[in-house]
Amino acid sequence: QSALTQPASVSGSPGQSITISCTGTSGDVGAYDYVSWYQQHPGKAPKLIISDVSRRPSGVSSRFSGSKSGNTASLTISWLQADDEADYYCCSYTGASTLLTFGGGTKVSVL
Amino acid sequence: EVQLVESGGGLVQPGGSLRLSCAASGFTLTNYYMHWVRQSPGKGLVWLSRINAVGRGDYAYSVEGRFTVSRDTAQNMLFLQMNSLRAEDTALYFCARGLYDRHLDVWGQGVLVTVS
Q: Which of A111, A89, A87 is nearest to A101 (CA)?
């Protein structure tokens, strides 16, 4: 199972919106609405910010939103803030023996 | 407070074994699917293994046959037995709570394993 494809880096200025894409296949992202997104600050554990394509867990800012079209999922961060600077990973259920596959990660920089 | 705390990491020679532990608090481990994920230095997240509510383990191709996931219901602990370790197994290992296999909502802080 290949990793999902994410851009290596995305940047934006405070207050702007950015979108991170996550491209999989018809066997993972395209087959299931079980795409999740994780934020990881340096030296910290990942934190769930989006589940089931577009659900926000309790306590996660409404500035984070998720969507999916075909084999590509997307994470949008609106009103970019300095604390949003982190690595972001998408993840999809695959239904295969390797149950979950992650993207390679996207480093978000706030200019 | 819902929390996961890993332990058992360290330095091991190639071909050696190590057993990682993950202590769960604030919830009953057997009510959830529990996962192991690792992150090699400077790299991304990689899913390794999961034990479901009835105790069945599933594994990524890269570790199948070498790693075994298990749990102790009395201690509310999760384990990962790692055998035949290779240099490429060097990583930070996280345990995580799953809502089935849909997403991972609680993560431990990670434990470092170095194979050298």
A: A89
**pLDDT band per the 50, 70, 90 thresholds, residue A2:** low
Number of neighbours of residue A104 by Cβ within 10 angstroms? 17
Instruction: Tell me what percent of the residues of chain A surpass a pLDDT of 70.
Output: 98
B109·A100 Cβ contact <8 A? no
How many beta-carbon pairs below 8 A join chains A and B? Answer: 69
Instruction: Judge contact between A71 and A26, C-beta under 8 A.
Output: yes
Cβ atoms < 10 Å from Cβ of A106 = 22
Distance CA A102, CA A98 (A): 11
Is A91–B104 a contact, with Cβ atoms under 8 angstroms apart?
yes
d(CA B19, CA A110): 40
Average pLDDT over residues A48-74: 97
Q: Name the residue among A46, A89, A93 with its Cβ closest to that of B102.
A: A93
| Category of B89 on φ-ψ map: left (φ > 0), alpha (ψ -120 to 50) or beta | alpha
Average pLDDT over residues B70-94: 97
